[in-house]
Design brief:
mainly alpha; 13 helices; globular
Length: 241
């Protein structure tokens, strides 16, 4: 058992599909400066305390690059497990061909994002030949297409003043619901438990909150350009004022 640092959600890997259950996910309580002591037995960290209102919205702690890349890494490992052992070498070669890296320990976040755009061409033919497959090729293809659309919402800078932005918010929420549904269609409960980490949790719940307010592409520590890096620098420089 472990828990999210930003809300009341508990990671319980022995509970099948709990991490994909929207009845559970929508019941979580976001931690605030007012209810912190109800859920934590330590003092609120200085940075979160100084920026409590922003923290409650996730604008300090949501690192889009880190969470999405971390989830894709775990996801690719899980999909690879569906492929016959004799084809694992082919997967490694395809990964190296696409990323120009010989080993995934050298991957950065963008490597995992780039790989995910090639999942269909890499995995579909191999999984389809596996007699132990747990899902149809159509189900897996649909899952890969959803991941591609999630990227569109994660990395395009949307105009929040547009009259159509509310439709985009709705589409993103529906898309994440579709993702959880499709994960259950493709993977067994034991397999899905491997994805029940902070990476997928932040993507499913906290990204929806952040997306209402800012572009997710801006929420990154990469190159010191994201909101997290800027806020840390601001409070480090002005924390005593």
């Amino acid at each position: 058992k472990s828990r999210c640092g930003q809300c009341s959600y508990l990671f319980i890997v022995t509970a099948p599909y709990r991490c994909l259950d929207w009845n559970v996910l929508t019941e979580i309580i976001i931690l605030t400066s007012d209810n912190w002591t109800e859920f934590r037995n330590v003092a609120m960290p200085l940075l979160i305390n100084l920026s409590s209102k922003l923290s409650e919205l996730g604008l300090v702690t949501y690192d889009n690059l880190h969470f999405v890349a971390g989830h894709l890494k775990q996801f690719s490992t899980l999909v690879s497990s569906l492929v016959p052992l004799c084809n694992q070498g082919y997967i490694s070669n395809k990964f190296a061909e696409i990323t120009k890296q010989d080993n995934d320990k050298y991957y950065q976040g963008w490597h995992w994002r780039k790989l995910s755009l090639h999942f269909s061409e890499i995995f579909i033919p191999l999984v389809d030949d596996n007699p132990k497959k747990v899902a149809t090729t159509k189900s897996l293809s649909c899952l890969f297409e959803i991941i591609t659309e999630i990227h569109i919402f994660n990395y395009i800078h949307w105009n929040r003043n547009s009259a159509d932005f509310e439709y985009l918010r709705l589409r993103y929420s529906v898309l994440l619901f579709m993702y959880t549904y499709q994960l259950k269609d493709v993977f067994s409960p034991d397999q899905v438990s491997q994805l029940d980490t902070v990476y997928m949790h932040k993507l499913l719940i906290h990204s929806i909150i952040v997306f209402r307010l800012v572009n997710l592409a801006a929420c990154s520590c990469e190159g010191g350009e994201g909101l997290i890096s800027k806020l840390k620098k601001f409070f480090r420089d002005h924390g005593n004022n």
